[in-house]
Fold this protein.
Amino acid sequence: MPDTVLGGISSPRDIKSCDLPALEHLAEEIRRQLIETISQNGGHLASNLGTVELTIALHKVFNCPLDQIVWDVGHQSYTHKLLTGRQGRFSTIRQPGGLSGYPRRTESLYDAFVAGHSSTALSAAEGLVRAKQLQHKPGWVIAVVGDGAFTGGMVYEALNNLRQGDRLAVILNDNGMSISHNVGTLAGYIARIRTNPRYFRVKDRVGNLLSSLPLVGPPVKDAIAGLKRALRQKLYHSNLFEYFGLEYFGPVDGHNLRQLCDVFQRVKNRPGPVFIHVQTVKGKGYPYAEQSPQAFHGVSGFDIATGNPEVAHYDSYSTIFGKELVALAREDPLICAITAAMETGTGLQYFSREFKDTGRFFDVGIAEPHAVTFAAGLAANGMKPVFAVYSSFLQRAIDQLIHDTAIEPQHVVFAVDRAGIVGDDGETHQGVFDVALVTPIPGMTVYSPASFEELRYSLREALQKNDGPCVVRYPRGSQPPLKAPFGGDYTLYYPRGVEQEDFQGMTLVTYGREAAVCELAADGLAEQGIPSRVLRLVKIHPLPEQAFLLLSQCHGLLFVEEGIQAGGVGEQLMASLCGYACGRSQPPKMKILAIRDRFVPQNSIEGALKQEELDHLSVERHAEQIWMEICREAMGKESVQ
């Protein structure tokens, strides 16, 4: 056997000729590669270590890209990337211009469908299958779905639309939340029998023989099938999938390559659809990840020898939110908290510990639409629910937000984490759409704090001063250094030397993380002799009335927004300002600096902000251009006179 098997793999075709020892050696090499690369680049470690053998076996047996693999969420597809011609670029994963941490059709023909959110794979896989059928194209579609994804409703909507004969294999990657209930030695023995090729051959022969016997054959065959189903129900409680028309296989040891290959080979000869229950260990092969799979689910980097992650030991918006919510809940027994399987990520671990015996903390699983309507139900009966959710995940529940929360306004507070650019997770996780999605909803109040103090203020205002739906949105990471002290719903910052009375210069308007950027830009403008100030909004919808009066009096206005421009606060503000400025002979010259009609690719947060011209030098340059236009127009008028 060569020293390296992985080095000889340029496509899945190269795996076909590998024997079992070579495949096992390949799995070891891949694990080393995953650990080394993720320790440097960051990424999803535990989930990828758990699916190494599963991925190898899929490419050994199936014929990609004729057969297509759809990865649910997609953060466990690193091994797939290594085996499908991207090994030479693997060191660039999650880096600017490098490989994505998720499947991308634009990246490889082996990536069948984009993935970044949970519970979507089965619906996408069904669509791929139907397209093959309609165009008379061969091949299987395999949906690899984690156990957590089965808490999302889309999975069951897709199961309900399966058809007999669909060449669709659903693989349950069970790495923690056991769906089937195995009972001791007997269950393990039955599992070994069911995954033995000899069992399948005998099963087919007996089935064919019984089918050929007139009169008595079919009833006996049905009786045996019924007995088998009853036995499996007793041992595994797994009949749910067979009720949906899936032929059930498993449980299968997800780290036994021989067993995996045997089962997949068996499945290829079935008419479909099939359900394969694969049990894996999250973090397999790296002791620190096996012991703490949650800590190594997504990491920024870590020391391989010690397992110590590169975790910042400072407060973040998430932790400040979590601690402040606990303080408020101590004062008010009606406050309760909801998460969609993101307790630690959203800072709700403090709430769950503090109120673990009160029933005021709810983890509903990966089910954001349910979480929103559930929260509305809590509010309708007098509670004050706070749903903490990432910005990109709130997108999954906009209908529930409009229909169930806003029409008959319920006092639900949405703590929207990871608002704005999030960095190297890329397009699927950038939180740049929430403002444009929620601000058009009647009765919605939206806060976007720029500091921890403003976050505490916003959360208290949302819970104590409002009676309808409220959004408190805040970015990933820690607070930036701000020059202007906290001032309530909005704050004005004047650089040193800029006259405040009868101000008629450039106003930079912004909210959230961009406030610190705009303050730096204003300082730079003031050094050039351009009178400038920053209006930092905390309550961004509805906008404070005083803000319109302030802005209608200035000569130039640059709105800086870390979000999509279409439908954002900038466009809303400028439309409203037209009414305030219509009586002036010369309305202010206005411009919006925001994300324009594009998905923001993976990058560091700082790199992405610069790429989108949302860094302080870009803001300063755009503001200077506006001011120069104002000056040229003023000079032109003077020359005419």
Remarks:
- The two ends are 90 Å apart (CA to CA).
- Residues 104 and 114 are 5 Å apart (CA to CA).
- The longest strand covers residues 556-564.
